[in-house]
Specification:
The complex is a heterodimer of chains A (205) and B (418). Chain A has a single domain, classed as P-loop containing nucleotide triphosphate hydrolases (Rossmann fold), CATH 3.40.50. With 205 residues, chain A is of the alpha/beta class. Chain A has a 6-stranded mixed sheet with strand order 4-5-6-1-7-8, sandwiched between helices. Chain A has a two-stranded antiparallel ribbon with strand order 2-3. Chain A has 7 helices and 8 strands. In chain A, helix 4 packs across helix 5 and helix 5 runs parallel beside helix 6. In chain A, strand 2 and strand 3 form a beta hairpin. By secondary structure, chain B is of the alpha+beta class. Chain B folds into 2 domains: 200 residues, no CATH class; 183 residues, no CATH class. In chain B, strand 7 and strand 8 form a beta hairpin. Chain B is elongated, with a radius of gyration of 32 Å. The two termini of chain B are 31 Å apart. In chain B, 47% of the residues are buried. The chains are: A alpha/beta (205), B alpha+beta (418). The interface between A and B is medium-sized, with 33 and 29 residues.
């Protein structure tokens, strides 16, 4: 449960929110991505309130503006890396070739141009998370919300993922909010918060 | 709906797909195989009459001859009068009538023959024999005092084309030989003569007139061609015109004596097939329902990355319909294989005593008569369309039910890592 949380993020910012397990940081990320609705209060995105919208309109909003990265990757096991990246574009009316091309470009961007046809079971944890990042980027989002993106990875893979986030933020201006309990991850961000028992405190990197 | 995603889900989760596929295939195969079996028997029941281009044979039971001398009618072929024939012609659904006069001839020299008077111009009834001509020519509409003989009988009697045969003192010239067996067991005779000659001979026969009021334009067997959709109705109407003594043979009367198993399949086959499809529906539901539990995260992910409820419903329903259709296609192939196997069966159809040409007291006359033909089982287009339609409907119902439940999944719950 979150209490008295009030914060805003600038376009192109890189923010970390640290906290222990059960502190409410994942709930905050779900509220920010409109996967959950606040019981009170409101959430605004680019000046417009999104918290009162219906589910389909929120799904469309996520598709157009948000990229989500999860600790457990959540790739579709039956699809190849390329198809997983293209997955958010499936409901979008566009030529199949364009969809494949956009997915391919994003996979190359995260260094997986040679793994296009591999299914998740044939990829390492670090590679799976890179596929998940490419999927988050395929809709050209303005904001990426990442929940413990390095939580399931070894140190080297974790550093590679953070490097990708940093590059995306600096080179493409994508705003990034990372939820983590790892201070190394938080140190990459330019702005940091801590969550303790559902309350937000400034500083955390 | 994404076809590549649909195909991946169906192909790369084979256990679930195969279970659903097999249950639907079982239902469709059962429905279509039973229909093919039933169709085979229905066609078989039509075969004895169909061989002579008729759908119904109408006779009337009458009195037993007082003496077996000269020309006489078997007691199953009492006269059918002209007014009755005209009334039958007026029955809706009657397309054509082949009028015949059938009689036995016991000659003074103890020889015996079976004769059938037929209208050579008719295409319904024994005039079909013209297709079984072996030698000489067939009867022509203007013919008198000529006959066509069954080749086997003629050989036995040492007769050939050009020979003369005598019936009740009337000399007839043999103009052709036919292979009677080619038109089955119905309307078989030793000699075939113009119906006008047969009428005249019967009208003049002492032992016919002793027990019957046979008039110059009567007949005693009618071969009726009817509209296929109205055969049973026509048969009933003919029976009503000919009264209590009517002997009506049709596909229905033959099917009644064919095989008890057929009777059961004909009566309950469709219901059993539908029950099979219901089992398939349950199988599909269980299989796709369990897939839903397996794919809760995937569905949560769809919503999280921007799929609308409609997108999810269309995707999952398409998967269910595709599985149902693939199952129906497999079921159709199985039914075709079963039908091919059924086609190697032969059906024996007992021919009722009243259609037997030979008196029971003569050698061979008491032997049971039967027509044996291959079972023409076939999967009909209508049943196939119905089976595929029901399969699609099952897929739609299951898909919609499952996907509506799927859209109630809360992404935030299923995507949590802890």
């Amino acid at each position: 449960m979150l209490r008295g949380v009030s914060l805003s993020f600038e376009a192109g910012s890189f923010t970390s929110i640290m906290g222990r397990s059960g502190s409410g940081k994942t709930t905050l990320l779900h509220l920010l991505s409109a996967l959950e609705a606040p019981t009170s209060g409101s959430i605004h995105f680019e000046g417009e309130e999104i918290s009162g919208r219906d589910e389909d309109s929120l799904a469309l909003w996520r598709r157009n503006h948000i990229g989500l990265v999860f600790q457990a990757f959540h790739l579709i096991p039956t699809l190849s890396a390329l198809e997983n990246v293209a997955f958010p574009l499936y409901p979008v009316k566009m030529a199949a070739e364009e969809r494949r091309e956009r997915a391919r470009v994003r996979l190359e961007q995260v260094g997986l141009g040679h793994r296009l046809d591999h299914r998740p079971s044939r990829l390492s944890g670090g590679e799976q998370q890179r596929v998940a990042i490419a999927r988050a980027l395929v809709n050209r989002p303005t904001l990426i919300l990442a929940d413990e993106p390095t939580g399931n990875l070894d140190k080297k893979s974790g550093e590679e993922i953070l490097a990708i986030f940093k590059r995306l933020n600096e080179e493409e201006g994508v705003a990034i909010i990372v939820i983590t309990h790892d201070s190394t991850v938080a140190s990459v961000a330019r702005q940091g918060y801590s969550m303790v028992d559902g309350r937000l405190e400034e500083g955390g990197s | 709906m994404r076809l590549s995603y649909l195909a991946a889900e169906l192909v790369k989760r084979p256990r679930r797909s195969i279970a659903a596929l097999l249950s639907m295939a079982f239902g469709v195969a059962l429905l279509l195989s039973l229909q093919a079996y039933s169709t085979g028997y229905r066609l078989a029941a039509r075969a004895p009459l169909a061989e002579i281009g008729a759908d119904i044979a109408a006779q009337r039971q009458g009195k037993v001859p007082v003496a077996f001398e000269g020309i006489l009618f078997p007691h199953s072929t009492a006269p059918i009068h002209r007014d009755e024939i005209d009334a039958i012609k007026r029955i809706p659904g009657v397309e054509d009538i082949g009028e015949s006069v059938f009689f036995w001839d016991f000659e003074a020299d103890k020889s015996f023959l079976v004769a059938l008077g037929l209208d050579p111009a008719s295409t319904t009834g024994p005039a079909r024999l013209k297709t079984a001509l072996l030698q000489g020519r067939f009867l022509a509409p203007a013919d008198h005092d000529v006959a066509v003989a069954d080749a086997t009988w003629a050989k036995d009697k040492k007769l050939s084309v050009g020979s003369r045969v005598t019936i009740a003192g009337r000399s007839l010239q043999l103009v052709g030989l036919v292979d009677t067996s080619r038109i089955g067991q119905i309307a078989n005779a030793n000699l075939y003569i113009p119906v006008s000659d047969a009428r005249a001979l019967a009208h003049a026969a002492k032992n016919v007139m002793a027990v019957h009021d046979f008039r110059a334009d009567d007949a005693n067997i009618l071969f009726i061609k009817a509209n296929q959709a109205e055969v049973d109705k026509v048969a009933s109407a003919v029976g009503a015109i000919l009264g209590k003594q009517a002997l009506i043979s049709s596909a229905r009367s033959f099917s009644a004596v064919i095989d008890q198993a057929y009777g059961l399949v004909d009566r309950f086959g469709f219901l059993v097939g539908l029950a099979g499809l219901l089992v398939a529906l349950v199988g599909l539901l269980r299989s796709i329902g369990s897939a839903l539990r397996e794919r809760r995260r995937d569905i949560g992910l769809m919503r999280a990355v921007g799929w609308s409820r409609g997108n999810v419903i269309v995707q999952l329903t398409s998967e269910a319909v595709a599985l149902a259709l693939a199952g129906a296609a497999l079921g159709f192939a199985l039914a075709e294989s079963a039908t091919w196997a059924l086609s190697s069966m032969r059906v024996t159809i007992p021919v009722p005593w009243e259609l037997s040409p030979t008196p029971h007291f003569l050698p061979g006359g008491a032997l049971p008569m039967a027509v044996t033909i291959p079972l023409a089982a076939r999967v009909e287009a209508g049943a196939t369309i119905l089976a595929f339609g029901l399969a699609i409907l099952s897929g739609l119902l299951v898909g919609l039910w499952v996907s509506r439940r799927a859209t109630r999944i809360r992404p935030a719950e299923v995507l949590r890592s802890e």
